[in-house]
From TrEMBL:
Pathway: Secondary metabolite biosynthesis. This is FAD-binding domain-containing protein. It comes from Monosporascus ibericus. Keywords: FAD, Flavoprotein, Monooxygenase, Oxidoreductase. One of its GO terms (molecular function) is FAD binding. The keyword Heme does not apply. Belongs to the paxM FAD-dependent monooxygenase family.
Length: 365
């Protein structure tokens, strides 16, 4: 991935990834296995902790010449007219050929590029409890230990909620995510992240299968809770020589696992179009190709996450039974469900080739 593969797959003498064989879907209340879906046929499906991916990117950046990394400060503001960045400590840095704003869903730079209505984050009505469990914590129970030992993700889809668990860091860490309704009415940025008492989480999942409740019981006393926000589709992806990338441009709901994936595709695209230019005069064409390569596709995926959300969180038991039967029959017939087919189309995307074609088309126009 953009020259970071070695760092992603190896850290010291141990792998930081887990090559997943696929995902198991189980009933939320009984824990009964519904189906197993093998990993995508396009390539290996590796699970990696966000922190490990960030370290790999940092290590790769530090290996390259002429890259200066500032620690302890953030980009507080950008003047898109003069290509000036103002740091949080007040320092102004002028004269950039290109500014890439990848500062997340709470982006301070997006309002400089997009109109206010497209820059205002909107609450989704859902939030995610997130925590990790060290392998040593799981060893007292064979059932939960198997979740970190086996190269499979497991997901339980229930009414208005779902839970997913999968191994990380060479099977030494189990990642657990519990999506649930968010009743908070606060819209300010500071309220997006909070902590919940573990007993509150347990109460929230009463009636769920014993495995899910065991996982929550093993968590710390306070469980991080992340409210989920999205932006309307960005009408533009750049202004002047400032571009948006990742969640700063197109925040994704987690139902198709495409948040970081689409940010990586953004990075591959901008790297591809920039590699073709030889002067700043060619930059506008490259940025137009970047937007043309990514905008429509990302908006389609954002819409698809809403479809997946409804599919995962069915409230009616009869509807759940029909969904689970369809999943089981598709698996037994060696077919994939519609949601999995969608995911395969995302994984098979060649961002570099698409960017090259878009650039050639614009250059010929």
């Amino acid at each position: 991935m953009l020259g970071t593969a070695e760092g992603v797959f190896r850290q010291g003498n141990s792998s930081v990834c887990v090559a997943l064989e696929g995902i198991e879907l189980a009933k939320w209340d009984t824990g009964e296995l519904v189906t197993q879906t093998a990993a995508n046929p396009v390539g290996k499906q590796n699970a990696i902790h966000h922190g490990d991916l960030q370290l790999a990117l940092l290590d790769r950046a530090q290996e390259l010449e002429k890259i200066e990394i500032r620690f302890g400060v953030t980009a507080a503001d950008v003047d898109v007219e003069t290509s000036t960045v103002v740091l949080s400590d007040g320092e102004r840095i002028e004269g950039f050929d290109l500014i890439i704003a990848a500062d997340g869903v709470k982006s301070k730079i997006k309002p400089k590029v997009c109109p206010p209505e497209a820059s205002r984050a909107q609450p989704t009505g859902e939030a995610a409890y997130r925590f990790t469990l060290d392998r040593s914590v799981l060893e007292s129970d064979k059932e939960v230990l198997a979740l970190v030992q086996r190269p499979w993700a497991v997901r339980w889809d229930g009414p208005s909620r779902h839970v997913v668990a999968y191994p990380l860091r060479n099977h030494q860490l189990l990642n657990v995510v519990l999506i649930h309704p968010d009743d908070s009415q606060a819209h300010d940025v500071e309220s997006w992240t909070s902590v919940a008492d573990k007993q509150e989480v347990i109460a929230d999942y009463q009636g769920w299968n014993p495995t899910v409740l065991k996982l929550v019981n093993l968590a710390q006393a306070e469980v991080p809770n992340f409210r989920m926000f999205v932006h309307p589709p960005s009408p533009v992806w750049f202004k002047g020589s400032t571009i948006l990338l990742g969640d700063a441009c197109h925040a994704m709901l987690p139902y198709l696992g495409q948040g970081v994936a689409q940010a990586v595709d953004d990075a591959a695209t901008i790297a591809t179009v920039l590699s073709t230019i030889r002067s700043s005069e060619q930059l506008p064409l490259a940025l137009r190709a970047y937007e043309a390569s990514r905008k429509e596709r990302v908006e389609q995926i954002q819409a698809a996450t809403q479809v997946a959300r409804k599919h995962l969180h069915l409230k009616d038991r009869e509807a759940q039974a029909v969904r689970d039967l369809q999943r089981k029959e598709a698996s037994e017939a060696n077919q994939n469900t519609d949601v999995v087919k969608m995911q395969h189309s995302y994984w098979a995307w060649n961002a570099v080739e698409v960017a090259q074609n878009a650039l050639a088309k614009l250059a010929a126009a």
